[in-house]
Design brief:
Shape: globular
Number of helices: 9
Radius of gyration: 18 Å
Number of domains: 1
Order of helices and strands: HHEHEHEEEEHHHEEHEEHE
Structural class: alpha+beta
Largest sheet: 7 strands, mixed
Strand content: 15-25%
CATH architecture: 2-Layer Sandwich
Distance between the termini: 38 Å
Length: about 270
């Protein structure tokens, strides 16, 4: 399928648009993460729509306002220890060790020279609200263990969603999340070690699914992504076909699922 990339850019994210400015800020953030990961021998790869954009558009999907990366959980834990001391002053790690109200089971890097609120509203209890890059850990896990972790951990989202005063609900949510990190997840990982599996998925508590083999992820390969040679999964096309079907065909209603509700870029 022939795609007129120039026409799509002009329609959805021309250089003067707020969306294009946001994409360029995320690209700058990715370049910082890429340099840190290279320096410390950490393999990561673009995921989801970011990987689709790399393969289909050689950059961002023109209407995409999100950037996601993944890595194996041991590398994720290593990066969480490194980032606070290696990020420049304009960027900050958002993880439960740096923001006590941050309860997501994956991390974000936030830009301090912008302000953004997501449509889901969960982020209004967080300390940082800038443009972000999501960092997802993946690990070998059996499907039923993954689903069980998501069902249990997901109660944190429900508590916040139904709270009349979100900030007042945070102590209870923090206790629930802490219980999972200290007790529930270690127990589930112990069960998983008793029944080893070759299949990887998002780490426990992350409510998304992409069942893959380690060889689907590694070794990563680099492809053009805007001005960067960015890593994608070794079997990127296989994963994209599993997730999106005919991934080279453009959707009928592009741009209908923006993540950002309010956005200011300084």
């Amino acid at each position: 399928m022939n795609i007129d990339h120039k026409a799509l850019r002009q329609q959805y994210n021309p250089d003067s648009s707020q969306l294009r400015k946001m994409q360029m800020r995320m690209l700058e953030m990715l370049q910082v993460v890429d340099a840190i990961c290279r320096r410390h021998g950490i393999d990561y790869w673009l995921s989801g729509g970011s990987m689709l954009g790399a393969v289909r558009h050689r950059g961002f999907i023109p209407w995409d306002d999100d950037l996601d990366i993944e890595m194996l959980r041991p590398d994720f834990e290593k990066l969480m220890r490194l980032l606070p001391g290696e990020l420049p002053d304009n960027l900050v790690l958002q993880w439960h060790t740096t923001d006590e109200n941050y309860f997501f089971p994956f991390a974000k890097i936030r830009d301090r020279n912008s302000r953004l609120f997501e449509r889901n509203g969960y982020d209004r209890v967080f300390r940082e609200h800038g443009i972000f890059v999501d960092i997802f850990p993946v690990e070998p896990v059996r499907p039923w263990i993954h689903r069980l972790s998501n069902m249990s951990y997901g109660h944190a989202y429900k508590m916040l969603r139904t709270a009349s005063d979100p900030m007042a609900a945070m102590p209870r949510i923090r206790r629930w999340v802490g219980f999972h990190r200290k007790v529930v997840f270690p127990v589930l990982r112990g069960l998983n070690r008793l029944m080893p599996t070759r299949h990887y998925d998002f780490a426990l508590g992350i409510p998304y699914y992409q069942r893959s083999l380690r060889s689907d992820y590694l070794p990563v390969r680099r492809v053009p992504f805007e001005t960067l040679q960015a890593p994608v999964m070794n079997e990127a096309e296989k994963c994209l076909a599993w997730r999106y079907g005919d991934y080279m065909r453009l959707p009928e209603n592009p741009g209908s699922q923006y993540h950002a509700d309010e956005l200011e870029i300084y």
